[in-house]
Write a structure and sequence with these properties.
It holds the Pfam family Calreticulin. The structure is a single chain. By secondary structure, the chain is mainly beta. It has helices spanning 118-121, 182-187; strands at 15-16, 31-32, 36-37, 48-49, 103-108, 111-117, 174-175, 178-179. Strand 5 (103-108) and strand 6 (111-117) form a beta hairpin.
Length: 188
């Protein structure tokens, strides 16, 4: 066992509170009671502790913590980072890099429920490249017209087109064999 925190007198002395988010007035202040407790909603919390250098070569490394969320969380949670010893603990925060291989394994009651790569299994970072929504524009001239239909410059009206009446008479409006006018229809 390399690091085990037992909440007895003086345990909080080995923890370092960083300056992360203090300049933005978004840093939360941890309380040390019978554990590490957050005090305010909508704040960023970070805390770190060193443990002796070790090697787990050819051995399983168990890296775990217990958490109790007492507030109703809209957005948030708790997590741990296993870091190399060259981290400045006063600058520790959310942007501090994870383990170099960025792999994870989630065990519940020592049974693996999920494992994989943080880079390929989670949308942690935006993609380095995205699909161009308009790829054709790079291969077309600047004056290219994307209209689906355009007027045909060769198109001509058929002969006699302008002589065709705009409205056709309705045979049902004939009275005594003559066409009624619109005015007479309105009067009737």
């Amino acid at each position: 066992m390399f690091c085990f925190v037992k909440y007895e007198d003086g345990w909080e002395n080995r923890w370092v509170k960083p300056d992360w988010k203090k300049d933005q007035n978004m840093a939360g202040e941890c309380n040390f009671t019978s554990g590490i407790q957050t005090s305010e909603d909508y704040r960023f919390y970070a805390i770190s502790a060193e443990f002796p250098e070790f090697s787990n070569k050819d051995k399983t490394l168990v890296f775990q913590f217990s958490v109790k969320h007492e507030q109703k969380l809209d957005c948030g949670g708790g997590y741990m980072k296993l870091l190399s010893g060259d981290i400045d603990q006063k600058k520790f925060g959310g942007d501090t890099p994870y383990r170099p291989d960025a792999t994870y394994s989630i065990l519940v009651d020592n049974v693996e429920k999920q494992s994989g790569s943080l880079h390929s299994d989670w949308d942690l970072l935006p993609p380095k490249t995205i699909k161009d929504p308009e790829p054709r524009r790079y291969f077309l001239p600047e004056d290219w017209d994307d209209k689906e239909y355009i007027p045909d410059p060769e198109d001509k009206k058929p002969e006699g087109y302008d002589d065709i009446p705009k409205e056709m008479p309705d045979p049902s409006t004939r009275v005594h064999g003559r066409q009624r006018s619109v005015e007479s229809l309105l009067v009737l």
